[in-house]
Amino acid sequence: MSKTVLVLGGGIGGVVAASRLRRLLPREHHVVLVEREAGHLFQPSLLWLMLGWRTPSQIARPLARLARRGIEIVRGNVERIDPAQRTVTVAGKEWRGDYLVIALGAELAPETVPGLAAAGHNLYSLAGAQALSVARAKFQRGRIALLVSAMPFKCPAAPYEATMLLEADCRLRGVRAAVSIDVYTPEPGPMPVAGPEVSKQVRQMVESKGIGVHTEHALKSIDPQARRIEFANGAAADFDLLVYVPPHRAPQSVKDAGLTGSSGWVTVDRATLATGFPGVYAIGDITGIPLSIGKPLPKAGVFAHSQAEVVARNIASAIKGESANALFDGFGACFVEGGDGRAGYGSGNFYAEPAPQIALRPPGRLLRLGKLLYEKYWLYRWF
């Protein structure tokens, strides 16, 4: 009997899950990918777009290309999810699946902080990175502030990479002496889930560039006219150019479906990514997976990719009547770009006990080359 798998979201997790399912399943079964945008954006490359090294067309691909592989593409916003019935309403039409994979990611919500959107540039959006590219090219003197507005946020290294890349850009343009750069974050240290040693190394990378790192600075308010940030600890900071990481939240349709737990994110089995509803899985940034150290698994594309592989294999095995035994092991890795054509590389097991076991390789040109090649590999391999 023919089965249908609905995959919600066209980000890294959704694209990998749908593509892998299509490859694993006989053609009698249907794989449907639901996404409101026409294209897939490779978000790690927004850092390069910010510097004018990439254009939008270079880091995006049409999702319609996946149709050539036999994946049905449904364009539209997910308005309602019924996990018990495994139905999804998209643009007023209901779709029913035998299996449901929720990969809708974290929704960016700068509007939840009064004045934030008017004050600066959203590092995590295409429009924000484009506007920032124009603004930084004109910036000659003053204060650059990079603000992490709330936790959790995806791609834990990105704010620190951005500051180092902006610092290098100022040097290349000959204005570094007239520019100060600071990063403000509510975190106890950079990338804290990776452990104190890695956090210390990343902090040293950033501070070695003459960039101020201000941890435990939770945002209280922001005044776009005065260009001033107030923090919950009583501190304040002025800026001339603001780059921000916006608050993240689960989409309303996921909340309304009763899928989110006390963390505000979807609760799943940390090995299989199964939710409490039979045949319903969630992967990537939409999930909240607690670790033994009391912090959640970071939101990062590398985890979405691995989780998608696990879920796709298990669903395909179940449909074919085979044993479903793929497990997500908590392993992750990411590049940490430091400017000047160099990048570090952090990797390890986030499920390790009693604490994640992560190591950071120091910045080098070969690692930077690896990051460049990975971007090309991703866009070619999946599209």
**Based on helices, strands and strand pairing, what is the structural class?**
alpha/beta
| Total strand segments | 23
* N-C termini distance: 30 Å
Number of domains: 2
Structure report:
- This protein is α/β, with parallel strands linked by helices.
- It has two domains: 173 residues, FAD/NAD(P)-binding domain (3-Layer(bba) Sandwich); 138 residues, FAD/NAD(P)-binding domain, CATH 3.50.50.
- Helix content is 27%, strand content 27%.
- α1 runs parallel beside α8 and α5 runs parallel beside α6.
How does the SSE layout of this entry go?
Elements: E1 4-8, H1 12-24, E2 30-35, E3 39-41, H2 46-50, E4 60-62, E5 72-75, E6 78-82, E7 87-90, E8 93-96, E9 99-102, E10 107-108, H3 116-119, E11 121-122, H4 126-138, E12 142-148, H5 158-172, E13 179-184, H6 196-207, E14 212-214, E15 219-223, E16 228-231, E17 236-238, E18 241-245, E19 248-249, H7 252-256, E20 280-282, H8 301-319, E21 331-339, E22 342-349, E23 357-364, H9 365-382
Parallel strand pairs: 1-2, 1-9, 2-5, 9-20, 11-18, 12-13, 12-18, 13-14
Antiparallel strand pairs: 3-4, 6-7, 7-8, 10-19, 15-16, 16-17, 21-22, 22-23
Give a brief outline of the structure.
With 383 residues, the protein is an alpha/beta fold. The chain is 27% helix and 27% strand. The chain has two domains: 4-106 and 250-319, FAD/NAD(P)-binding domain; 110-247, 3-Layer(bba) Sandwich (FAD/NAD(P)-binding domain), CATH 3.50.50.
